[in-house]
């Protein structure tokens, strides 16, 4: 199978190597440097715990965090764990005695609090008795031998990645492109909406942005025009989804959250409709969130939904619109008129001028942010950018947050902390 891409900046044919194991770069239209086969690695990564600074496997992170919470509930620490079940029972009785002393007939101890206490007790008890298998280092993954060619990577969760650039000098004598487009589409109730957006939204937005820059060389309020272009592009894309071409969802038509970024020079434009998040790591150690939280947890979004006669159902762990989706904005959803009235397509657009000290931009869907904090996501980049000391970044982020809490001057640094020369890099 052949895949073909063509554009101003490149023209490339990629051969599917699964059809022929002996396929090489010689079969391509481009003369690329030789590509080394990927080194098989275990599909697993580790992350530093923000509390104890231990390296924890990602699949154990949730249980490890629950263990920290259990220790805190019983007034223990990782350095001072309960040494016996007898000591743990004694501490539990003391906590129950304190709860009963503060309770009354009008305000009794809640069942939810008792349940959390019992779960924490069982978790600590299992750790003392050695029966807590979730915290053990159990190698349950099968080693994978991928038949993939590409640049090798130390990121354990990725099999391979590749980089290719071509000036396309046959059709373009000079390369003047200074723009980039990045996007994520998180679909639900079928994949059609997300796939259509990934295919067409870039083209729709490109035409509208090009019109802005081609109509006049001078723009007094370019940001306002870009915001209008994003709004019009999302509206037109939603009309394309209304036709329902290739829609296969039975109960209701598919929908998706969408986040798009346009980078032109040092100007960054981020538009999101949904619960996908974009964060920027700045040079002063701060994390700037560039997207809005379009979920039922947002008070303004809840008010808008109820005004549109929609319903928001909440529990301790989740919140849903009409009992169906977690996002209050997005594209698609045309098969359910009631849901469509509540989940609107209008994006929120943020405009930002990047500085030389800004480090990197992270785009990730809601599934990532439900598990990891923003600091933990940065720690996950350790294998991707090995020449940058991401742990030092997170440490300085914590120092900055602590300084803000007590009203001290915010610490800054002029350059990003990097590893010693002995560490590998791309």
Give the class from helix and strand content and strand pairing: alpha+beta
Uncertain segments: 1-42, 136-155, 413-426
Number of strands: 14
Biggest sheet, in brief?
A: 5 strands, antiparallel
Quaternary structure of the protein: single chain
Please state the overall shape, judged from the principal axes of the Cα atoms: globular
N/C terminus separation:
31 Å
How confident overall, as mean pLDDT? 77
Order of SSEs, N→C?
EEEEHHHEHHEEEEHEEEHEEHHH
- Rounded Rg: 26 Å
Helix content: 25-40%
Bin the strand percentage: 15-25%
The total of helices stands at 10
Domain PPM-type phosphatase: 160-426
Organism: Desmophyllum pertusum
InterPro entries: PP2C, PPM-type-like_dom_sf, PPM-type_phosphatase-like_dom
Family: Belongs to the PP2C family.
Structure overview:
With 426 residues, the chain is an alpha+beta fold. 32% of the residues lie in helices and 16% in strands. It is built from ten helices and 14 strands. Strands 5, 6, 7, 12 and 13 form a five-stranded antiparallel sheet that branches. Strand 6 (255-264) and strand 7 (267-273) form a beta hairpin. Helix 1 (61-73) packs across helix 3, helix 2 runs antiparallel to helix 3 (111-129) and helix 4 packs antiparallel against helix 5. The radius of gyration is 26 Å and the shape is globular. The protein starts with a strand and ends in a 20-residue tail after the last helix. The model is unreliable at 1-42, 136-155 and 413-426 (pLDDT under 50).
């Amino acid at each position: 199978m052949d895949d073909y891409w063509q554009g101003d900046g490149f023209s490339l044919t990629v051969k599917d190597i699964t059809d022929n194991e002996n396929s090489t770069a010689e079969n391509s239209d481009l003369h690329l440097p030789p590509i080394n086969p990927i080194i098989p690695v275990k599909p697993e990564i580790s992350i530093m715990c923000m509390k104890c600074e231990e390296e924890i496997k990602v699949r154990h992170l949730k249980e490890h965090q629950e263990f920290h919470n259990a220790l805190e509930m019983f007034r223990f620490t990782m350095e001072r764990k309960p040494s016996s079940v007898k000591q743990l029972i004694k501490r539990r009785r003391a906590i129950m005695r304190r709860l009963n002393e503060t309770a009354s007939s009008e305000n009794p101890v809640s069942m939810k609090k008792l349940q959390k206490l019992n779960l924490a007790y069982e978790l600590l008890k299992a750790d003392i008795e050695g029966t807590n298998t979730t915290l053990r280092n159990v190698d349950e993954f099968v080693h994978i031998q991928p038949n993939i060619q590409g640049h090798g990577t130390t990121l354990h969760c990725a099999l391979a990645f590749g980089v290719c650039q071509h000036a396309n000098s046959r059709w373009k004598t000079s390369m003047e492109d200074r723009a980039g487009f990045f996007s994520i589409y998180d679909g639900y109730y079928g994949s059609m909406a997300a796939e259509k957006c990934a295919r067409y939204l870039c083209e729709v937005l490109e035409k509208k942005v090009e019109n802005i820059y081609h109509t006049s060389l001078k723009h007094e309020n370019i940001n306002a025009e870009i915001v209008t272009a994003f709004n019009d592009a999302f509206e037109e894309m939603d009309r394309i989804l209304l036709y329902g071409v290739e829609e296969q969802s039975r109960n209701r038509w598919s929908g998706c959250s969408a986040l798009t970024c346009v980078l032109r020079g040092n100007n960054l434009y981020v538009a999101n409709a949904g619960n996908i998040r974009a964060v920027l790591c700045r040079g002063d150690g701060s994390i700037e969130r560039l997207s809005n939280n379009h979920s039922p947890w947002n008070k303004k979004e809840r008010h808008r939904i109820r005004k549109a006669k929609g319903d928001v159902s909440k529990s301790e762990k989740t919140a849903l619109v009409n009992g169906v989706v977690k996002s209050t904005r997005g594209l698609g959803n045309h098969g359910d008129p009631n849901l469509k009235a509540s989940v609107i397509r209008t994006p929120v657009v943020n405009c930002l001028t990047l500085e030389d000290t800004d480090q990197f931009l992270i785009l990730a869907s809601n599934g990532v942010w439900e598990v990891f904090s923003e600091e933990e996501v940065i720690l996950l980049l350790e294998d991707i950018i090995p020449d940058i000391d991401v742990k030092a970044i997170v440490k300085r982020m914590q120092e900055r947050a602590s300084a803000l809490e007590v009203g001290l001057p915010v610490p800054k640094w002029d350059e990003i902390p990097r590893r010693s020369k002995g560490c590998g890099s791309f």
